[in-house]
Design a protein that fits this description.
Elements (H helix, E strand, L loop, with lengths): L1 E4 L5 E4 L6 H8 L4 H27 L8 H7 L6 H13 L7 H15 L10 H21 L5 H27 L3 H8 L7 H23 L14 H27 L4 H15 L3 H15 L8 H26 L3 H9 L4 H31 L11 H10 L8 H29 L6
Antiparallel strand pairs: 1-2
Helix pairs in contact: 4-10, 4-16, 4-17, 5-6, 6-7, 7-9, 10-11, 10-13, 10-15, 10-16, 11-13, 12-13, 13-15, 14-15, 15-17
Length: about 450
């Protein structure tokens, strides 16, 4: 059904017309003689390209072989997928120990479980769930991936992450079942609905503290074998660097954009200088500077490994680019929105949080997702400074003695992986635009 406005300004629903495929083809592809010619030329090119790929990648392809020479002996003109199969685990996980790969898989499953409630319509408090993912998941995933002895800080943060995940999961399950929330369910079970707000809050905090103490005691003796960061690689390392960069880009961009628009000269000048400094140099330069200059600014005896230095550099670089996207979105909001919020008595931060920023973010969705996709692809530059990301693992596969000279197949697999991730991000952003009505006529 589609909505139409009548003379009184109200909307009424009109029946949606059924799409006729033949009519659509005539209107879009064969409406004029030159469009018809171009359509047939394009179809011929697509057919020729698809036929070559099918012949090379499937008909003449070799799937089982011990080395590239055996592939060439079996089918000289076909793809040698046997080498990709032999190196596929390394392309995905890098040099991470095979017996510890369950930790990476568990980390991915935990992230999926943490984010799943965001797509469930009956679950409430989705903003809190999203923020808890950003704040607590990195601590749990970080220990899963690194392991080693746990200090008191690591134990506390890991416990907080486990508690948060459990609370979110139970809350989401209750929401799916009956549309309620964990807080209301607990208050109902304890018969505290009619008690004062202070009594309810104190009781819930006491339950949360007791649950935290139980989880802390249970995980205190849980220790994983340490895996050095130098063994991280492949798609796993690419997603870790780009994931942290994407997570930090938006909040950093919002802070820097607000600072650049500040009326305080000192804050405005500092933010402008910081943004322009990182936006004026390519990412590879920032990565080289991070690995060579960061140690000079650290206290004596305090060392950061190369992976941490790269992550910090990527976060700063992506945050500065995101700041300009956010600033553009803020400038697109009519001045009347600011004046209306001020007329209602809202202060600066409430005005930005509840009136201006939600509207601006809707119109920034395409640029934000485009920036995220660019950041994901730009992280392959870390291969230049010695990190074995997915691009370096593909290069290593082509230099392995049994598979030396195998270039096209691993690169094609890498391209397909990046396409799938970027296409998924693009489709989700389009769905989010429709859901938030960001594309409606203003």
């Amino acid at each position: 059904m589609t909505a139409a406005a009548d003379r009184t300004g109200s909307t009424r629903q009109l029946p949606k017309q059924r799409l006729d495929p033949l009519r659509w083809l005539r209107e879009k592809l064969f409406n004029t003689w030159y469009n018809t010619i171009l359509t047939f030329i394009a179809l011929a090119i697509i057919y020729k390209f698809a036929a070559v790929i099918w012949q090379w990648g499937f008909v003449d392809a070799v799937w089982i072989a011990e080395n590239r020479r055996e592939c060439l002996n079996i089918s000289p003109g076909g793809a040698c997928w046997a080498g990709v199969i032999a190196w596929f685990k390394a392309i995905i996980y890098g040099r991470y120990p095979a017996v510890e790969l369950w930790r990476i898989n568990l980390g991915v499953l935990l992230l999926a479980a943490w984010l799943a409630p965001l797509w469930l319509p009956r679950v409430s408090m989705k903003t809190v769930i999203g923020l808890s993912t950003v704040v607590f998941y990195p601590f749990l995933a970080g220990y899963l991936f690194v392991g080693g002895e746990k200090g008191i800080l690591i134990q506390v943060t890991v416990t907080a992450a486990i508690v948060c995940l459990a609370v979110n999961s139970v809350h989401s399950l209750i929401g799916v079942v009956n549309g309620g929330s964990l807080v209301r369910t607990l208050l109902g079970l304890l018969r505290l609905q009619h008690r004062s707000e202070k009594a309810q809050r104190n009781t819930l905090l006491a339950l949360l503290a007791a649950f935290f103490a139980i989880v802390f005691a249970l995980q205190a003796g849980w220790t994983l074998e340490e895996v050095s960061w130098v063994k991280w690689g492949g798609l796993f390392l690419t997603l870790v660097i780009s994931g942290i960069g994407i997570t930090m880009a938006l909040p950093m961009g919002i802070i820097l954009a607000l600072g650049r628009r500040s009326r305080l000269p000192v804050i405005r000048v500092l933010c402008i200088t910081f943004i322009e400094l990182f936006r004026s140099v390519p990412l590879i330069t920032v990565l080289f500077m991070a690995t060579t200059m960061f140690p000079l600014f650290l206290p004596e005896g305090f060392n950061l490994n190369k992976l941490v230095q790269v992550i910090v550099a990527v976060c700063l670089f992506s945050g500065c680019y995101m700041a300009e996207i956010v600033r553009g979105g803020l400038q697109a909001i009519p001045k009347g929105q600011y004046e209306a919020a001020q007329a209602m008595g809202l202060g600066y931060w409430k005005m930005m949080s509840f009136v201006v920023m939600p509207q601006a973010l809707k119109y920034m969705i395409p640029n934000i997702v485009g920036n995220f996709m660019g950041l994901l692809k730009d992280t392959t530059l870390v291969s230049i400074i010695g990190l074995f990301d997915i691009l370096n693992m593909i290069k290593a596969a082509s230099q392995d003695v049994p598979w030396r000279g195998l270039h096209k197949e691993p690169l094609l697999v890498g391209a397909i992986i990046f396409f799938i991730i970027c296409f998924a991000m693009s489709k989700y952003s389009q769905r989010l635009e429709v859901k938030l009505s960001a594309g409606e006529r203003r």
